[in-house]
Structure formats: C-alpha cells, structure tokens
Amino acid sequence: MKQRNTMIPTLRETPADAEVKSHQLLLRAGYIRQNASGIYSFLPLGKKVLKKVEDIIREELDAAGAVELLMPALQPSELWKESGRWGTYGPELMRMNDRHNREFALGATHEEVITSLVRDEVKSYKRLPLTLYQIQTKFRDEKRPRFGLLRGREFIMKDAYSFHASKESLDEAYDKLFQAYSNIFTRCGLNFRAVIADSGAMGGKDTHEFMVLSEVGEDTIAYSDSSDYAANIEMAEVIDCYTESSEDLQETEKVSTPDRKTIEEVASFLKIEKERCVKSLLFKVDDEFILVLSRGDHEINDIKLKNELNAQVVEIASPEETKEILGCEVGSIGPCSLDEKVKVIADQAVKYIRNGVCGANEEGYHFLNVNPERDFTVSQYADLRFIKEGDASPDGQGKIVFAKGIEVGHVFKLGTRYSDAMNSTFLDENGRAQSILMGCYGIGVSRTLAAVAEQFNDENGLVWPTNLTPYDLHLIPINMKDDLQSSLANELYEEFKSNRIDVLMDDRAERPGVKFADSDLIGLPIRITVGKKAGDGIVEVKVRKTGDMLEVHKDDLLAKIQELLQS
Ligand code: ATP
Ligand code: MG
C-alpha cells in the first residue's frame, strides 16, 4: 500500500483526554478515531490489526470444533423477557422502539438469541454437542466508558455458545475452549493468566477469566508466588489457617470512644492492634438486614457474601436504616445483645479473636474484651473477606501476590440457566425431554487489540509483534523526487508484494524526520530506508523493536527480511 492512497492521520500531540498508553498511541498513530464517548471508528490500520486478531480467533475456534454464524444485533424484547433479563439487565442494555412501538435492544450479548435459535432447530441428542460462535459488534451503555477500546459502549466481541446433552460433554467443550483461548492469547503475544472468576449476573458455576497483566487493568488478580493458582480477587478463597490465641478471657468493659468511628480511629485511641477489633457492617441482603462481622484489618467481600447467602442483591445498609435497626450511628454498632431480629454472620477469622473490641450499639461507646460465643452469637462463620497480599495461597502452595489485569476473555459453564427459562429441550436416548446444557465463551476482540497495544510500545510509539502488525514493513524513500531513490523504492515495493510481504510505502513528500517519527509511531516491525546509497543498490534496515540498523544490498534484501520476520 502506498501511504498517499490510504488514511493514516498521525498526531504530534497526545490527545488530552486519552489516559492510557494504548488509547493515546492508537489515536496518535492513526489507528482509531472517536465518534462519541466509548464509540470508535477503526481506520485502515486499526481495521487491519483487528482482522488479524479475528483471524487468530477463527483459526483456533475452528480447530476446537466451533462453527461460525452471525446473529442480528437488533433483538426483540420478547426474548429478553423470556429469559427474565429484560427486567434485570439494567441501563447497560441499549433499548429502543421501532416505528410500531415494539421494544428492541441492541445486543449486549446473545444468550437469548442463540438459545431460541437452538431451541427451534435442535431437538435430539443426536444433534449434540454443538458449539457456535460469532464475531460481532456489541452494545453496552457502560457507566464509565474509558481507556479507548478497553471499555467502549460499542465494541467487537467474539461470543461462542456450546450446547450439550450431558455434563461430561459440557466439561469437555469447556476444556477445549479454555485451551483455544490460551492458544489465542499466546499467539497475540500477551502476558496473561487464566483466573477463577465469579459468574455474576450470568448465572452458572464454573468460570474463568483470561486476564492480561497490566498496570491499567481494572481487575485485581490474586495469584500464588509459587504455583499457577490465580483468581479474581472477588473470588480468591481464604483458607482457615488462623492460629488460636492462648490468652485468658478477660472481663468485658464498656469504654467511651468519643467521635472515634472508623476502625483506625478506635484502634489508635484504645492503643490496640486493628486485628483485635471486630468490624461490624449492617447489610441488606435481598429484604433482610444482616450484621456481618470481620476482623478490623480485613475487608468484607460482598460477592462472597452474596454467594454464601445465595442472595440476589447484597448492599450495605444506609446510615438511616442502620440507625433505625440498631439504634445508633454506623461507627458504634456491634454484635453484642442484639435482639433476635438481626441475624449475625461472621468471617471465619472472627472466631479466633480473643479479648476483642466492638461497638456497643450506643453512640460513642465500645466494648473491650469481647469474645465470640461468650459475648455475642454468630449464626454462621464463612469465608467472607477479601484475600490480602501475603495470605497463604488457597492451593497450599506459596503466598498470594496481587497484580492488575485487563479481562480479555471469559469462559462460563451456564448449565441450564437459559434453556430452563426459555424452554430449550432435547429428546434423550429414551425419548425423554431434557433441558440442554450450555456453556458460553466471550472474547473482547477490540479490547484484546488495545491490550496488545498497551503491552507492545515504547517511548516512540507502537511496536507490533509480527503476527499482529498491520503491515510487515515500512518502506521509506527519503526523497521521492530523486529518481534513483524512487525507482529503487518502487522496484522493492513490487518485489515485496509479489513475495507476499505486506508493505507500506511512505511515498509522501514529507521531510525525513517526519517520515521517521511517523514510522516509529505506527510501529511496523521493520523499516527500510531508501536514501543516498540507492545508486549502489544499498538500503538501510531498522528493526523497530531493538533499534538495530544494518545496511543491506537489494539482492540480499528479500532473504534478510524473510529471516527477520520469522525471528
Ligand atoms: P467487564 O467486567 O470488563 O465489564 P464483562 O464481565 O461485562 O466485562 P463479558 O460479559 O464476559 O464481560 O463479555 C465478554 C468479553 O467482552 C469480556 O471478557 C471483555 O473482554 C469484553 N468486553 C466486555 N465489556 C466490554 C466493553 N465495554 N468494551 C470492550 N470490551 C468489553
Ligand atoms: Mg461489564
């Protein structure tokens, strides 16, 4: 491609509203442009990289036995009402009415559409298992679209869905897709981890997220420093390996703690460690108020709480509700002498507290020397807290460390969540109708592109790995008006093209400095400069990643380039 025939609008300045490297560089190097918040055009370079990511995904999914189809983005509300998500999905779902005032949504995900499709077309166990996928634009009215392609409101997703007659068959497909995902992200050159995740609003049990390790990631991954254990911090299990204290039980005492509300304030006022404090939080769990206890240096994880209590909605009670139920301000509440209407549950670490401190349910007072069982009743102990760095890894190997991650993919075992709701059944070998088991598997295609850009760059611009680069090499004649230079450049251009090397030639009448800066910014793996030595058939080759430069004669160039592209 000749640069004058395409559109690569590079920018000198970093756009003010672009916070992260991938967003800045994809804008500056002319890969994408914003149309509205969270909505982007892929310019020719961006589109080429996107296609390469898609091709890798297609190759790996096809090899795993999945079959591509394409479903509509526009979805009638009836389907979402059948699954029950028209009411629960919330404002992220973009809804609209047609001219007949019928309700539609722009597809945020396609469980409903595919379940209805398979329900109508697959009736027998003989047609199962089946794995279908599509690569398509999705719409989600995100609360905070940000970081360019990393969190858009319109973005490209690969979504796959598998259908099964048995749990074993679902497990098998899950493992295959899991492996395909590992291959995909490895081929993209990404530094990633597959982490245990929460199934969230989707329903279903076994689920993993594929996380690219990155400072700009919005998720926190807890992983072991000495095994391959990794989990989303929301899910990472804390094992009960606290030590029993040998302290004698002391007598409880009520003390005044004026204006001390937080654990920090109370602990420092009473000159005790935070570990000794019982932190009490009143939660509203579906419609019931529950007092949840943890150790003062621990944080309650509401996802664990929700899963433990099998609840739909878990939220912290408002200060007004707390006052109404417990009769005092949030900072003074505690588990002692509560009447029976408030159930108390606690993180397992609380069981080991000896002679602790807790709120006295009286404004400005705390109890000293409280002990579980003796001074307050806990109806249930469970693992309810967030894991911390330094905690033991749940697999028993090593300690937990944290890293930030960008979720690029997600694999789920849905079970019969959608087939039950939408009555999608098959006839088994005995002619009995059974619900189809399902799995679903997503990859953020445009987010993956951005994650690659986030990982592959330096101070001068993007540095594409060879299998995702928009063009293999950048051919730069210094001066197109120089006949020797332009004819050698054109000769090389044709030679590369006929040898299936995808070449971008900068045929613009720009100064060399501008051409070089743009070339670094765009980030193709190899730059070839045709300059003063064109008359001798000599060009300069620069490897973008290492900065290595060498002079090569045109007769040896093709072989050299092929070697470099392979390495
Ligand atoms: P997130 O927690 O980041 O919002 P999600 O759990 O909502 O992601 P899924 O519903 O599992 O995501 O969607 C499948 C994949 O689509 C995700 O793994 C992610 O890579 C991608 N994705 C989700 N939301 C966006 C978005 N707003 N912009 C770009 N990619 C997205
Ligand atoms: Mg989301």
Q: Stretches where pLDDT falls below 50 for ≥5 residues?
A: none
CATH architecture of the largest domain: 2-Layer Sandwich
CATH level-4 homologous superfamily of the largest domain? Bira Bifunctional Protein, Domain 2
Radius of gyration, rounded?
Answer: 30 Å
Query: What is the overall number of helices?
Result: 14
- CATH class value of the largest domain: Alpha Beta
The biggest sheet amounts to:
9 strands, mixed
Distance from first to last alpha carbon: 24 Å
Structure description:
The structure is a single chain. This protein has 567 residues and is an alpha+beta fold. The chain has three domains: 12-192 and 412-453, BirA Bifunctional Protein, domain 2 (2-Layer Sandwich); 253-382, YbaK protein (Alpha-Beta Complex), CATH 3.90.960; 471-566, Anticodon-binding domain (Rossmann fold, 3-Layer(aba) Sandwich). The strands form eight sheets. Strands 3, 7, 8, 9, 10, 11, 12, 21 and 24 form a nine-stranded mixed beta sheet that branches. Strand 27 (473-477), helix 12 (483-498) and strand 28 form a beta-alpha-beta unit. Helix 1 packs across helix 11 (445-455), helix 2 (44-63) packs antiparallel against helix 6 (167-187) and helix 2 (44-63) packs across helix 11 (445-455). The chain is globular and about 95 Å long. It starts with 20 loop residues before the first helix and ends with a helix. The model has no long low-confidence stretch (mean pLDDT 95).
Chain-wise SSE layout:
Blueprint: H1 21-28, E1 32-36, E2 39-42, H2 44-63, E3 67-68, E4 74-76, H3 77-83, H4 85-88, E5 94-97, E6 103-106, H5 111-121, E7 130-139, E8 154-164, H6 167-187, E9 192-196, E10 207-213, E11 219-224, E12 230-232, E13 253-256, H7 263-270, E14 278-285, E15 288-295, H8 302-308, E16 314-316, H9 319-326, E17 343-347, E18 356-359, E19 365-370, E20 380-382, E21 400-415, H10 417-421, E22 425-427, E23 433-435, E24 437-444, H11 445-455, E25 457-458, E26 461-462, E27 473-477, H12 483-498, E28 503-505, H13 512-522, E29 526-530, E30 538-543, E31 549-553, H14 554-566
Parallel strand pairs: 3-7, 15-17, 17-20, 27-28, 27-29
Antiparallel strand pairs: 1-2, 4-6, 5-6, 7-8, 8-24, 9-10, 10-21, 11-12, 11-21, 13-19, 14-15, 14-16, 18-19, 21-24, 22-23, 25-26, 29-30, 30-31
Helix pairs in contact: 1-11, 2-6, 2-11
The structure holds adenosine-5'-triphosphate (ATP) and magnesium ion (MG).
Adenosine-5'-triphosphate binds next to β8, β21, β24 and α11.
